[in-house]
Every structure is written in structure tokens, then in C-alpha cells.
Amino acid sequence: MNTTSDDLAPAVRSILESAAERPGGDERVAVSARSLSEAFAAAEADGRVPVIAEVKPTSPTTDGAREDDPVELAEAMVAGGAAALSVLTEPDHFGGSVENLERIREAVDVPVLRKDFLVREDQLDAVEADVVLLIARFVEDDLADLVAAARDRGFQPLVEVHTREELAAALAAGADLVGVNNRDLGQLEVDLATFERLAPEAPDDVTLIAESGITTPADARRMREAGADGLLIGSAIMDAEGVDDAGTGGDVSANTRRFTSAETEDEV
């Protein structure tokens, strides 16, 4: 871990402390990955906005939690047109698990992103996925090595950035999948203009994904107009605030469809 913890929000600092202590896998994995770029192209050809819908039971920035079966949620998202899925495997703050990812990847035929806070190479070996998230801010000095290590295992590494400096580091590390997080992990504030500032600085051959703060179809259109090849959407699809006392509720299929059809309809 190569970031200065005192410039992070307390919730993020706690997540990183847990990540540093979490063990990796016992054996090196080898993945035959489903192509994210091909999934995006297929969505475009079908008239859908390429959306990575996120199975996120809870998070430090949302109220409530969903207790639905994660496989059922994932299948509903795919039915709503999601081009790919993101599955939280961080257990302590997001209620995720590698077991959830394994079950979901077995049940669906779209690419699955492992969403976690990985800080060491051995943590790549915890579970097979198609895409793996590497957050530039948290692995500064090790980013190029982790990108290479992920590819050696068959993963498609998605490098998350928030600043121009992090984008430059991601490109220097050879990243061709870049996620621009509109949320500042220092203050946890969200600004969609973050993507709009960074997108013009990425080469045309880099696949750009807008992350965080996409809450309406209008937000989706805004990010697409700014150059987003895909959108990562979690809370607005999971609708944690609308769950009932049993931790269920909120039609994730309909919520997903609102965004995958955002360029043809305002609401579904």
C-alpha cells in the first residue's frame, strides 16, 4: 500500500487497513476471461448503453443493505440489459465475498469485474474473475507490476483513477481499461465533472468507464457525451434506500433498464 492514509476519508482509511491484512489466495489462478470490450460492443450493437451493474449489498456511502440472494440480483441485472457485472468481494465494509463472485460468475454469461481494494499481488489469486480492479491511488509504486501480474493470470485489469496524475500513471503502466472515479476518496464528494476533465486526456484506444455518481438517465447521457465507453453503476441500481425490513425490494432489473436505455428513453 503506497498511499498516505491521513489524506483519506476515515471510512476509506478503515477499508485500506482491512485490505492490508486480508490474505491472498493459496495458489496462483489462471483465468479464461470473457472480453469486456466485446461485451460493450455487443451492447452498442443492440442499442443499449454499456453498463456494468454492481452487486453491492451495502457500502459506507449508502444507507441500508440488501439481503437478496446475490445470484438473483445478478440475473435480474443481466435481464435488464447489463453488459457486465461488478461484484464486491470486500467483506468488512461492503458485505461482499469471493463466494458471491464465484456463484454469480457461474450463473451468468457476461464478464464479471471483481470490485475490491487489492494492495498485493497474492490477493489477485483469491478468486477467478474476468476483470479485476486496481485503484491507482492505493498501489502507486506497484501499479505497473500489478497490471502485468493481472494480465499474466488472464485477468483484464481495470485501473481506477481520479486525477490527471493518476491517469498518467495508469497509461504509463500500460492500462487499456481505465475507470474514472467521480468520487474523491479523500472527502467522499462526488463530481461528474471529474470524468469530463479527464476523458479528453485519454488516448482513443483506451476504454474509458465512468464510475460513481451516476444516479439518473440524464447523468448516464452526460457521461456518454463526455466520452464514456461504459458506465459502472451501483447504488442507483441496487436502490438500497428502498429496501424493506427484510433487506429486500427495489426492482434491479427495471433499475438497470433505466440506464441501459438512457439514450433512447428518459425513464423506463
UniProtKB/TrEMBL annotation:
Its EC number is 4.1.1.48. It is an enzyme of class 4 (lyase). One of its GO terms (molecular function) is indole-3-glycerol-phosphate synthase activity. It catalyses: 1-(2-carboxyphenylamino)-1-deoxy-D-ribulose 5-phosphate + H(+) = (1S,2R)-1-C-(indol-3-yl)glycerol 3-phosphate + CO2 + H2O. InterPro entries: Aldolase_TIM (IPR013785), Indglycph_syn_Halo_TrpC (IPR054875), Indole-3-glycerol_P_synth (IPR045186), Indole-3-glycerol_P_synth_dom (IPR013798), RibuloseP-bd_barrel (IPR011060). Residues 18-244 form the Indole-3-glycerol phosphate synthase domain. SUPFAM superfamilies: Ribulose-phoshate binding barrel. One of its GO terms (biological process) is L-tryptophan biosynthetic process. The keyword Amino-acid biosynthesis applies. Keywords: Amino-acid biosynthesis, Aromatic amino acid biosynthesis, Decarboxylase, Lyase, Tryptophan biosynthesis. Pathway: Amino-acid biosynthesis; L-tryptophan biosynthesis; L-tryptophan from chorismate: step 4/5. Residues 253-262 have a biased composition (Polar residues). It holds the Pfam family IGPS. Residues 1-26, 244-268 are annotated as: Disordered. HAMAP family: IGPS_A (MF_00134_A). Belongs to the TrpC family. This is Indole-3-glycerol phosphate synthase. The lineage of its organism: Archaea, Methanobacteriati, Methanobacteriota, Stenosarchaea group, Halobacteria. The gene is trpC.
